[in-house]
Amino acid sequence: MEFIELSNNLVEAKIALKGAEIISLNRIGNTSVLWNKDDLIWNRTAPNLFPIVGRLKGDSYFLDGKSYQMKQHGFARDQQFTISYQTSDSVDLTLIWSEDTLSIYPFKFELTIRYFLFEAGIDVHYMVRNLDKKKLGYSIGGHPGFQLKDELNMYKLVFSNPFASERHELEGAYYSGKCSTMDCSGELELNNALFENDAVVFKNPPFTSVGLVHKTGGELVRLQFDQLDAIGFWTKKDAPFFCIEPWWGWADELKHTGDFETKAGLHWLEIGQQQDFKYSIVLCL
Predict the structure, then answer these.
(1) How many domains does the chain have?
(2) 106 to 62, 84, 132: CA distances (angstroms)
(3) Residue 241 confidence (pLDDT)
(4) Structural domain harbouring 275
(5) What is the DSSP string of the chain?
(6) Which among 3, 24, 43, 175 is most buried, taking Cβ atoms within 10 Å?
(7) Residue 246: how many CB atoms within 10 A of its CB?
(8) Is pTM beyond 0.85 here?
(9) Residue 235 is part of a domain; what is its CATH number?
(10) Which tens digits make up the pLDDT trace of 214-253?
(11) Cα separation of 93 and 86, whole Å?
């Protein structure tokens, strides 16, 4: 089995066992809100990011005197998950440490991603458990890409409340340490110029939901969450997708030394401890 199909007679989803990645999500009778993947543009649909979010400086880090290599956003998105629980409208997909993962990430862990359909969308739960005999450090997050049927400047983001927040500037794939204030009156007009330096990132975002809205067609999809470490918005120039990325963690800063224990944006679990995170995708059309 390569895919799992879930349905509650209102919403249906298709999820790949590789990466536990949602491939399609729609109200029954409608098309998917996720983009139709094109490997020539971006070879993902809605990858799960673990055990890092973003990129390590030089794609490497050191811990306990040893150096390790790890690609952007970690390895979970390329691993085969197993089904640990399933009903018609929900599934738990689990990834457990292996000798291969230990060679790039020297921690014993269990990651379960639970998908549960509700009447208007899907809940995404991340559950990380420390199976090791030492503290475990990690970051985790989502990266769903939503389908655009028009030019980017025909869309806007609508937030749960007006806010002013610091946009953390990227230099390449790393945080430069510079910030610029973005004052949003509850909405942010989208255009290609916003993403010339990669993603728009807010740390500790002061809002609890964000919707992707077509200026004449209405709200397409909305992400809801309680507390995030950061949220990223990203696309490629003239690409037919837009990503809204809920994160618990973030990429390295340019000044980071590579020491994993001092890396910003990590969560640390004591032996036997579990930590849970959740966000929801609401279908608005």
Answers:
(1) 1
(2) 10, 24, 9
(3) 98
(4) 3-283
(5) --EEEEE-SSEEEEEETBTTEEEEEEETTS--SB---BTTTBS-SSPEE-S-SS--GGGEEEETTEEEE--TT-SGGGSBPEEEEE-SSEEEEEEE--HHHHTTS---EEEEEEEEEETTEEEEEEEEEE-SSS-EEE-EEE--EEE-SS-GGGEEEEESS-EEEEEEEEETTEEEEEEEEEEESSEEE--GGGGTTS-EEEES-S-SEEEEEETTTEEEEEEEES--SEEEEE--TT-SEEEEEEEES-PPBTT--SBGGG-TT-EEE-TT-EEEEEEEEEE--
(6) 175
(7) 28
(8) yes
(9) 2.70.98.10
(10) 999 999 999 999 989 999 999 999 999 999 999 999 999 9
(11) 9
C-alpha 119/C-alpha 5 separation (Å) is 16
How far is 192 from 177, CA to CA, in rounded Å?
23
Tokens of 139: 């970051």
- Residue 133's pLDDT is what? 98
